[in-house]
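[job 0417] fold request received: SRPBCC family protein
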Amino acid sequence: MSVFESAVTINKPASVVYAFLGDMNNHRQLMPDSITDWQSTTDQASFNVQNITTLSLKIDERVADTLIRIIPAEKAPFDLELKWELNSASENTEAKFTITADLNMMMKMVASGPLKKLVEEETANLVRLLS
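[job 0417] inference complete; emitting structure tokens
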């Protein structure tokens, strides 16, 4: 399994960060420009990763103000889990975004860079949007 993660501190309580991340409609604002054909509901989103694949993801688990776990809603090119973990300290919240992917050697060479960039871009966009 390959693990890609990024953590940031946001000057908002965990309840605010959790409310934003708990709605898949909001995740479009976190995504890079290479994402197209976005469609979402509160619990699910599907989109096209430019020139690579179409993904459909759903929220599988919610733990209030602490965790949001996202998994494929349909067959993905590889096993995948996205996880937002929130840790609150007074008025600040540490948000850690982790993508765990089961990549074979060939996919690892192709996808590692974009996945690392994705976790960093999503956390940076989360800080920008909620600050």
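[job 0417] notes: The two ends are 33 Å apart (CA to CA). The beta strands are 2-10, 35-40, 44-49, 53-63, 67-72, 80-89, 92-101.
[job 0417] exit 0
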